[in-house]
Structures are given as structure tokens and as C-alpha cells.
Write a structure and sequence with these properties.
single chain; about 110 residues; alpha+beta; three-stranded antiparallel sheet; two-stranded parallel sheet; 5 strands
Length: about 110
């Protein structure tokens, strides 16, 4: 198993993502610190994609009243379909990628 850092404020969003994807994991939550740790057999790339999904769910709840938030990777690879007519918000960290993809300057 590989031990990887995750921001402690993201742990509550990461747990459902790991469970949905049937990932065996062990969590070392450090409430008084900025980072906690997740042990899993995921590759670095797979872990990063699940962290992005957790970030999307965090932004969805905290910034957009539960509306769909997609990362650029999910958008380009059609991994998650937006609800209700295809409307979605983009993950804040991917804003520049969405703009460039649309041919807009950032």
C-alpha cells in the first residue's frame, strides 16, 4: 500500500469517493494538522483523479448549492455527465484549462 497526503478538510469528501469506487483504504486523520494520510493500492494517477473528484464534490457543496462540478479531465473524457440539461460548474483549479479549451484568453 502507498501512503499519500490529503488535505484534512477534504477527507470528508474523499471517503464517499473511495467507497463508491470500491477502493480498499486506511485513513490516518490528523484533525489538528493541515494534512492527513490515505493508504491504498491506487496508482498515483488514479489517486489524483479521485482527489479531483473529492475536490469537485467539496466545491459543489460549498460554492454551488449542490450543482455539478467537473474537473477538466472528467469533462474531456466524458466521465461524469452533468445533470439537468448539461449545465455544470468547472473546478476552480482547472479554470485556465477550460478557458483555453474554449479558445478564450484567461
Amino acid at each position: 500500500m502507498s501512503k499519500r497526503k490529503i488535505r484534512t478538510n477534504l477527507v470528508d469528501y474523499m471517503i464517499p469517493v473511495l467507497l463508491r469506487n470500491k477502493v480498499a483504504y486506511k485513513l490516518d486523520i490528523r484533525d489538528d494538522e493541515e494534512y492527513s494520510f490515505v493508504d491504498s493500492n491506487l496508482t498515483s494517477n488514479a489517486y489524483h483523479r479521485l482527489v479531483e473528484r473529492a475536490m469537485c464534490e467539496q466545491e459543489s457543496k460549498e460554492l454551488h448549492n449542490g450543482r455539478t462540478v467537473l474537473s477538466f479531465y472528467e469533462y474531456k473524457n466524458h466521465l461524469i455527465l452533468p445533470k439537468e440539461g448539461g449545465c455544470f460548474h468547472y473546478l476552480q483549479k482547472d479554470k485556465e484549462l477550460f478557458y483555453r479549451n474554449a479558445g478564450l484568453s484567461y
